[in-house]
Amino acid sequence: MTTQQNVSKVRTLTVTALFLATILLQTQVPFLGYIPLGAFIIGVAPTIIQFTVAIGTIVLGTKQGIILAGFFGLISFIRAWTNPVSIGALMFQNPLTAIGARLMIAVVIGVFARKFIIGETGTKLVSRLAIAGFLAAFTNTFFVVLSTWLGFNVMHTTFVGIPDSNLLHWLLISIVGVNGIAEMVVGIFYVPAIAAPLLAFLKHHK
Length: 206
Description:
Elements: H1 3-28, H2 30-33, H3 49-60, H4 62-82, H5 95-116, H6 122-153, H7 166-204
Transmembrane segments: 12-31, 37-60, 67-92, 98-117, 129-150, 170-202
Keywords: Membrane, Transmembrane, Transmembrane helix
Pfam family, one: ECF_trnsprt
């Protein structure tokens, strides 16, 4: 391995560690990781953490993106079981929802980035980063809803201390849908605002 390859590897590990630290901080400090709609108690807390995963995937590639997504999902899963502070958090007690849906963000954004973002500059880069932000939120919402539906109807998910209720099931899915709409709108602006200057900085210091 050449010196340049070693430097590149160290740089990738360093940036990955910074993204992991950012995700950890966002999950622990609500106003850094969630959109404050004022209804956390029922789970209406749209997250912006999937955009950190998406940006990390764009900057570092799909492999590192999967690591970031898995880390985010694992934290969601652990928090759902150890600190279920809202009704909405209960659905993430299912690992398919908590981890599987997050991993799909990295997969989808990784494919999109390879085909439409890498090598682009200027307004075309910004517009495609906006699409990536929308896709990150859409992917997260779609797979959370799908995995939650599968959990209820195929895996027959039940929650500790809460009786089985179709009303609760649809309430949870509705919460995710409301969150998802807010997240898609935010993602269109958030991802370009962060990713564009970050890509320029990393390119300049390559």
